[in-house]
């Protein structure tokens, strides 16, 4: 596909988990400047031609001067071949001296499925350790764990068309107008077409999303599981449950019923700090509407109680049978373009490929046998935060960081920096020349970027789409899968002799037959025989994709047979708790709520290169409620220091009536490259959910001080 003839090439947006189709319009064949314009792909089922401001400006992020185009060992520029030989030699030396647990990969939801697959195969099947985790741990691992607890498998049982088909749409812990804008546009349109569609927004802040809502419930940050335990009790008390559905398709209802029994309206009101009348109104809407979607993202997941919060939501859908039918279901939305692909290939340290279990001996042997690999990881490896802690302790002596920026994004910031400083060998492969993590690299490997890479991604509704490369690689950059396979081959392993992405993808698709054999829904065997031509022409489709559903299947649990042994879904008894905030309460304490803004992305490594994306917000800020600002005598743009015993940041004030009293809102994007003291992870200790190990990156507490 590189240097295609003039015309249009369909690819996928490189930003969020909506996974919008993008048409690249090429005016003439030739060098890399021939990619002229882009627009939303009209036939892609995620967006039908729509794009948000980030997606519309993607072409402006590809400036050659911002790219890492050579390999480096230390400060010396070397060939990529020399650099991968060095990495292979060092990895072999370290693992021979210290064992397989002494090396690690920290990967990313920005990788394509093919990249992810070979990285996971190398670490778990050949090096023989589960020391591979992904930055997706930070955004959705609680949702993964909750689906697994409820359904026996990490399966999202919803589709984007549910947005158009529901009667009531709950947004929970999600400012989707800014974070998943095209889905918000679909919601706006659905409201125009069906004025009876009600929107309920559960969010501590007033946001662009809550403006659309018929009912906004500004609950205490992190109190969601109390709210949904209360809903379950309300449904039971008011005989709004579907007892037939529960009896036929669910386990464990009695324990969930017991756990929610104390959650009276009074208790929910006190716990969530909400008006009883508002709570009742929301509960009635859920109870009386046949088709309800609960749409949730980081506000639910990024918490030490994240998994329970997800399960408290899922419980209400199971109890009413509002699941596995058009317009209904608990819908977790991912933040990155291929977080879902990473879930499918087993990119988390506690998974095997194809939704198989790392601690299940049958699953281990089946994957090992499929790969014909010398070994297989037999226990969960360290999650992201644990991995960097092991690096700091000297237990992991070499880490390869791929396409992510942990020096900014991980909590426990100061210890992450110490870990990177003290690690004997840090390898960073990336497509950008500068980011905070690259500053610690002993070896830099130049990776191809968007419009150069070829492969697949899976979006939040399980839809696999192609990303298509239309540009030549910049400088000496190689595809991530090539860099990984080069190192694997040079380490002396067979099993990495791939020539093109389709070879990797079809192997992965074949491996999904093992998942199917073990009773799992993840099945893309229908794509296991694709030729290169068919792979290049692949149209977006939702798994499962197999003989029964050659064009994919939108309702994965249409027969209500879940992936548990009994084929029944599990209710989970949720002990609702407020999140641990980490620091001692004082009179001057504020809850710091972190989040994203409309025009920036992650740690700004891409959006930071686009001037247009600074038009509406060109500097970092801290939002504070108008009453708090008055009490503290603060004015707009005045600098304040936000501090706790862990660290501090300094930001200009933005007075915002949408932020609750006693709370602050700080965007996650700015870091040292763009502002001297704005990195919000300076305030976040390493508090994680005990089930998912997802860090609590949503709330912490801190004091403020005028400067
Ligand atoms: Fe890209 Fe997400 Fe915007 Fe779609 S909604 S254009 S995937 S950033």
Automatic annotation (TrEMBL):
Q: Which UniProt keywords apply?
A: 4Fe-4S, Iron, Iron-sulfur, Metal-binding, Oxidoreductase
**Origin, by domain of life?**
Bacteria
Does Iron appear among the keywords?
A: yes
Give yes or no: UniProt keyword Metal-binding.
Answer: yes
Which residues belong to any copy of the 4Fe-4S Mo/W bis-MGD-type domain? 6-66
**What is the protein named?**
Nitrate reductase
Annotated gene: nasA
């Amino acid at each position: 596909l590189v240097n295609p003839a003039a015309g249009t090439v369909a690819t996928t947006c490189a930003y969020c988990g909506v996974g919008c189709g993008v048409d690249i319009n090429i005016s003439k064949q030739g060098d890399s400047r021939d990619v002229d314009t882009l627009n939303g792909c009209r036939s892609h089922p995620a967006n039908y031609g729509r794009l948000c401001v980030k997606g519309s400006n993607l072409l402006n992020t590809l400036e050659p001067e911002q790219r890492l185009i050579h390999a480096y060992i230390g400060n010396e520029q070397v060939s990529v071949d020399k650099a991968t030989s060095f990495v292979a030699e060092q990895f072999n030396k370290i693992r021979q001296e210290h064992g397989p647990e002494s090396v690690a990969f920290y990967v990313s939801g920005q990788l394509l499925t093919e990249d992810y697959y070979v990285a996971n195969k190398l670490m778990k099947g050949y090096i023989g350790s589960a020391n591979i985790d992904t930055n997706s741990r930070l955004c959705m691992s609680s949702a993964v764990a909750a689906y697994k607890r409820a359904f026996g498998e990490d399966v999202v049982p919803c589709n984007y068309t549910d947005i158009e088909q529901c009667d009531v749409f709950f947004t929970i812990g999600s400012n989707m107008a800014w974070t998943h804008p095209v889905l918000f546009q679909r919601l706006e349109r659905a409201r125009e077409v069906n004025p009876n569609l009600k929107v309920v927004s559960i969010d501590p802040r007033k946001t662009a999303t809550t403006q659309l809502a018929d009912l906004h419930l500004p609950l205490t940050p992190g109190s969601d599981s109390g709210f949904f335990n209360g809903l379950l009790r309300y449904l039971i008390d008011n005989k709004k449950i579907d007892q037939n559905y529960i009896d036929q398709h669910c386990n464990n209802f009695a324990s969930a019923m017991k756990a929610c029994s104390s959650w009276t309206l009074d208790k929910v009101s006190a716990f969530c700090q909400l008006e009883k009348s508002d709570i009742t109104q929301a509960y009635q809407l859920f109870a009386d509407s046949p088709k309800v979607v609960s749409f949730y993202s980081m506000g639910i997941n990024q918490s030490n109680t994240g998994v329970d919060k997800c399960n408290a939501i899922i419980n209400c859908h199971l109890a009413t049978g509002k699941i596995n039918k058009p317009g209904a279901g608990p819908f977790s939305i991912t933040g990155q373009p291929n977080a879902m692909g990473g879930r499918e290939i087993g990119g988390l340290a506690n998974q095997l490929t194809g939704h198989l279990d790392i601690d299940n001996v049958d699953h281990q042997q089946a994957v090992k046998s499929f790969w014909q690999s010398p070994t297989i990881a037999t226990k969960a490896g360290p999650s992201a935060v644990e991995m960097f802690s092991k690096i700091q302790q000297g237990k992991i002596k070499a880490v390869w960081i791929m396409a992510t920026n942990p020096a900014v994004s991980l909590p426990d910031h100061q210890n992450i920096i110490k870990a990177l400083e003290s690690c004997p060998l840090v390898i960073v492969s990336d497509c950008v020349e500068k980011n905070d993590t690259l500053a610690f690299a002993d070896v830099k490997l130049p990776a191809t970027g968007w419009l150069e890479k070829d492969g697949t991604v899976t979006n939040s509704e399980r839809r696999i789409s192609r990303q298509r490369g239309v540009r030549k690689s910049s400088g000496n950059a190689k595809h991530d899968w090539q860099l990984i396979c080069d190192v694997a081959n040079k380490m002396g392993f067979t099993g990495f002799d791939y020539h093109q992405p389709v070879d990797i993808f079809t192997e992965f698709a074949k491996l999904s037959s093992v998942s199917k054999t073990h009773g799992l829904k993840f099945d893309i065997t229908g794509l296991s025989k694709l030729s290169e031509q068919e792979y290049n022409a692949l149209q977006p489709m939702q798994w499962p994709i197999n003989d029964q559903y050659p064009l994919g299947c939108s309702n994965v649990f249409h027969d209500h047979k879940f992936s548990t042994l009994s084929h029944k879904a599990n209710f989970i008894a949720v002990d609702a708790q407020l999140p641990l905030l980490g620091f001692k309460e004082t009179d001057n304490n504020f809850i710091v709520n972190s989040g994203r803004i409309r025009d920036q992305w992650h740690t700004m490594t891409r959006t930071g290169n686009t001037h247009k994306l600074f038009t509406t917000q060109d500097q970092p800020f801290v939002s504070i409620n108008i009453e708090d600002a008055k009490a503290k005598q603060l004015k707009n743009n005045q600098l304040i220091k936000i501090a706790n015993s862990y660290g501090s940041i300094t930001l200009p004030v933005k007075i915002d009536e949408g932020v609750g009293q006693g709370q602050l809102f700080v965007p996650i994007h700015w870091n040292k490259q763009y502002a001297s003291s704005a990195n919000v992870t300076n305030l976040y200790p390493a508090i994680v959910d005990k089930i998912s190990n997802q860090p609590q990156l949503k709330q912490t507490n801190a004091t403020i001080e005028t400067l």
